[in-house]
Amino acid sequence: MDEHLTARCTPSSGRLKYLRHLHQVPEIPKSELARLEEVARQYPFRTNTYYIGLINWSEPKDPVRQIIIPRREELNDWGSLDASSESLVTVSHGIQHKYPHTVLLLCNEICGGYCRYCFRKRLFMDGCNEANLDVREGLRYIADNPDITNVLLTGGDPLMMSTRRLVAIFAALREIPHVRVIRIGSKMPAFNPWRLLGDNELQQALQMYSEPRRRIYLMAHFDHARELTDAAVEGIACFLRNGVICVNQCPLIRGINDDPAVLADLFQQLAWIGCPPYYVFQGRPTAGNQPYSVPIVQGWEIFREALRRGSGLARRPRFVMSHKTGKIEILAVDDTRIYLRYHRARDEEDRGRVMAFRRDDAAFWLDDLDPWDNEPPMFEPSPLLEMSDGLL
Ligand code: SF4
Fold it and tell me: By alpha-carbon position, which residue is closest to atom 1 of ligand 1?
């Protein structure tokens, strides 16, 4: 990891230090430590002194604590490590290509902290080699496929890479004329706001490579308004000042933001700071994530109620499931049915399709649902739906 990041922090960040062992967190009761260390041997623990300082330890259900401190229930037998079968769309080492216009480069295998509910936690586990720090093959793949207009740098967290490597990737992508949007999927604005604030070279690179007709987007990841500290807000302002478009995406997580008031507060504050909510994800049934999972129907009710409470800019997110067949929007639930629609689809014939399933309040994922009346659940998309799919 880039431990040298600490050296780049501005004085206001202090000497932010990364923590990789639970015994470095004195607030964890000794009686709990051994059990939680067992969890962390399976699903690694990582945080830093700034982020852990956001925890109110007198509050057992503190949201930041839930995000970063392991729980024993993670060892419950549940889910799989690759719950949406990313292996099926991995076209080469560290390159995922699911939708025609967008490619993912998994260019780093660590993050500023490890969210306990991470759907890609397999990357941090021993023996995993899915990310590829060498992006040359990915760049060749993108250059050879003119349909690719969007490149998402992900992992792991790309902002944990050195500035030198990041700038080299931006420069190489800008040499490919058909690449318009570079997305940076990152939780560093929450984990370490000084990553950008303290790095003039990176700020200049963002300014240079986020061009008026070819923007860089930050796909930020704030889960709870508690993470929107003054430093984090200043960090987002710094992205904006340097020409980056900011949006937020986060999962709906039990014990963290599964409350309409909490979610509405997050949406509003994100809109106010110029990082409006984009997607809210239904949690994937990932191994270790049972304690963080919310059933689809409950999630939809929370999401719908949160939207009702916000003004327009805070009401823009879609509630979606990243299923192996595509990105599926949860449209509505009534007394008997759940209505879904392919927002993005791996197979062209699924694009824009609306589907109805038997309502099941215990279901967590598409694969748990039964089609309505056991009929094939697909409806042909109306021209209007096709049009809106193309526009959004
Ligand atoms: S920042 Fe993203 S990739 Fe990293 S641990 Fe959290 S959810 Fe997973």
Answer: 187
With beta carbons less than 8 A apart as the criterion, state whether 159 and 186 touch. Answer: yes
Residues 171-223 have pLDDT tens digits of 999 999 999 999 999 999 999 999 999 999 999 999 999 999 999 999 999 99
| Closest residue CA from atom 6 of ligand 1 | 115
Closest CA to 228 of 200, 187, 282: 187
Ligand 1 atom showing the smallest separation from residue 156 Cα: 3
CA angle centred on 202, ends 44 and 173, rounded to 5°: 90
- Domains of the chain, residue spans: 5-73
Residue nearest to atom 3 of ligand 1 (CA): 156
User: Which residue ranges have their beta carbon within 6 Å of ligand 1?
Assistant: 111, 114-115, 118, 120, 157, 187, 221
The label of the residue with tokens 């002194």 reads 49
> Residue 305: which of 323, 287, 285, 280 has the closest Cα?
280
Question: What is the whole-number distance in angstroms between the Cα of residue 115 and the centre of ligand 1?
Answer: 5
Q: Are 220 and 187 in contact (CB under 8 A)?
A: yes
CA distance 256 to 65: 9
pLDDT tens sequence across 89-101: 999 999 999 999 9
Which atom from ligand 1 is nearest to the alpha carbon of 117?
A: 7
Point out the ligand 1 atom lying closest to the alpha carbon of residue 191.
1
Secondary structure tally for the chain: helices H, strands E: 13, 15
